[in-house]
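During the no-cost extension, the postdoctoral fellow (Dr. R.K.) reprocessed legacy sequence entries with the updated structure-token encoder. One reprocessed record is reproduced below for audit purposes.
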Amino acid sequence: MNRFAHAAPGLTMLGLAALMVAGTWGMGFWDGFTAGPAFFPTLIAISGAILAVLLVVQATSGQVEAIDWPPPPIMRRLGLVLAAIVGFPVLSPVLGMIPAVGAVLAFVTVVALRQPVANSLIAVAVTTGLAYLIFVRWLGMALPRGVLGF
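Re-encoded structure tokens follow.
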């Protein structure tokens, strides 16, 4: 069990690298004189896979110390932030990209990090405003629009 616990991060990274390669499988790696859409994801996946294999080898060689897990309050915060990260792509098509950014940021700052509500609302307003100005107005990107229309 202890060796599996040490190998789990490396195995997870290896699985994520495989998913990244599978997700970009049909895209071009090289396009004429420039890198194609699969170029950087493939480089990241290869780098991650190399690191993952090194982690698994280290974990199974018995040269690792006992895992010093963070205390429960920190694990709770990590779980809440992970829930927000997973929830973001679910919220984006429903609320729209910009409101989803605001909702996730508000959740993380108020619930997970327990920051004052006023400070959190200022951070949400500035971040969502900048995201809108940069991506929609300046770059002209068509971000997902939700039921609210923005």
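The CA atoms of residues 69 and 75 lie 8 Å apart. The longest helix spans residues 72-95. The remaining legacy entries will be reprocessed before the final report is submitted.
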